[in-house]
Amino acid sequence: MYPLQVRFFENALRGEDQLRQRVALALHGILVVSGVKLRQPSLVGPYLNLLQRNALGSYRVLLGELTLSPAMGGYLDMVDNAAATAPGFVPPDENYARELLQLFSIGTHLLNEDGTYVLDAKGEPVPAYGQETIRAFARVFTGWTYATLPGASPKKSNPPNWKAPLWLYRNAAGLDATHDKGEKKLLDDPGAPHSVLPANQDGAVDLDQALDNVFHHPNVGPFVGKQLIQRLVTSNPSPQYVARVARVFADDGKGDRGNLAAVVRAILLDPEARGAVGSAPAYGRLREPVLFVTNLCRALGATSDGVLAAQASSMGQSLYNPPTVFGYYPHAYEAVEGLQGPEFGIQSSTTAISRVNFVGSLVGSGIGRGSETGGTSVDLSRFAKLAASPEALVSVLDRLLLHGTMPGEAARAIAEAVAAVPASNPSGRVQTAVYLVAASSLYQVAR
Questions:
Q1: Which residue, of 1, 141, 204, 393, has the fewest CB within 10 Å?
Q2: HSE toward the beta carbon, residue 424, CA cutoff 13 A
């Protein structure tokens, strides 16, 4: 993944479409394809372009393109998934069908608009679907293979083509010969159309209607909306925050459902994202490693060749190589009982040390300096004029890195440590101040 990793950091540090890049990364954490299985960057690159292209578009269009992405087809085994035939009647692979429902759209249990579980008479969460529904969706996703390569003849199982969407195999008579033609019972919810797909439908029609069935399920707004809130703002949004975002997902104010631009706007401009609630103890999120790296580099105006993936990897996040379809870290991980903190799922004593070592290297000698590509370094000379006054220096860094939220006790402690560096060493004072602020939990937890 090295070339894609370098491009990510280059885009994150210098690109003019920061919001799009940020949302695309969040979507990558939800709609996972991993280089752990697809080892070549040429296989994963088109999938990443797909996320960027749709990051502020329609979630329904995104689901459609994702489903027919050759990267997703190869990662979750939808490609060359054929209807059961004699002898043996081996059923279709259920991998993509299961993850589409569980991870990409509705989750495993019915949700209220605010993201809380719908409960039965015994107070237990109500399942959103069962195994038979998964089997039905698996039958929907049959008959698709890689797109025919230029100049080649179509086959039931085409050789890999990572540049074009999956192709529904049709025989010489134009029939989708490897698609399951039976009736399929899908999600049965008043808000979800096409709960039953009739027999003998064309495979492309089956797929389109099945995705409509998923997309219009009322769970999608709160399920996807809450995850985007957690990745963009805070790990523990209130039910009211989730409900407000879910309503925008359901209707952007112009009658459109799943408008991600409107959803992201609602997330970022919500009172819980902009208001005084940011000071609450449960508010915020641990910066995942790649965002810890990019945020600090951007804040300090770093000059970089983009070769920073190793630093993020040492903190527990190998970019574009999430270990499983569940992503880089467990979505429902609790930092303490009752308090979600997904990114803490990959935090350990080792990765914690790597975080502060990264800060020390960046503000000290730089990272990879002397390499052919130049490495990453920061010029802190603009702070040198403040070195004579540790309190003023800390105050400026507080506004730059913490938005002016540093508690007085922390500010005094850091100023004392800075003052312990001889005044004749202004660069040492600046490095000490930046290091102590950026390595602190006050900065590592974004609020």
A1: 204
A2: 0
- The SS3 assignment for 148 reads coil
The answer to whether 150 and 258 have CB atoms below 8 angstroms apart is no
Mean pLDDT by 10 residues, the chain (447 residues): 97 95 98 96 97 98 98 96 79 96 97 97 96 97 96 93 95 91 93 93 97 98 98 96 98 98 98 79 93 97 96 97 96 91 96 97 91 90 96 97 93 98 96 98 93
pLDDT at 192: 86
> In whole angstroms, what is the distance from residue 115 CA to residue 195 CA?
23
CB atoms within 10 A of CB 130: 8
- Please state, in angstroms and rounded to a whole number, the distance separating the CA atoms of residues 142 and 160: 17
Angle CA 261–208–216, to nearest 5: 50
- Count CB neighbours of 225 within 10 A: 27
Instruction: Identify the three-state secondary structure at position 375.
Output: coil
Distance CA 127, CA 306 (A): 45
Residues 6+ apart with CB under 8 A from 175: none
Q: Looking at 303-405, which runs of residues are DSSP E strands? A: 303-304, 334-336, 339-340, 376-377
Tokens of 108: 């495993």
Helix, coil or strand: residue 417? helix
In whole angstroms, give the CA distance from residue 234 to residue 228.
Answer: 9
45 neighbors 71 (Cβ within 8 angstroms): no
The span from the CA of 242 to the CA of 267, in Å, is: 9
The phi, psi pair for 445, rounded to 5°, reads -95, 110
For the chain, the straight-line distance linking the first and the last C-alpha, in angstroms and rounded, comes to: 31
Rounded Cα–Cα distance for residues 340 and 329 (Å)? 12
**Residue written as tokens 């089956």?**
206
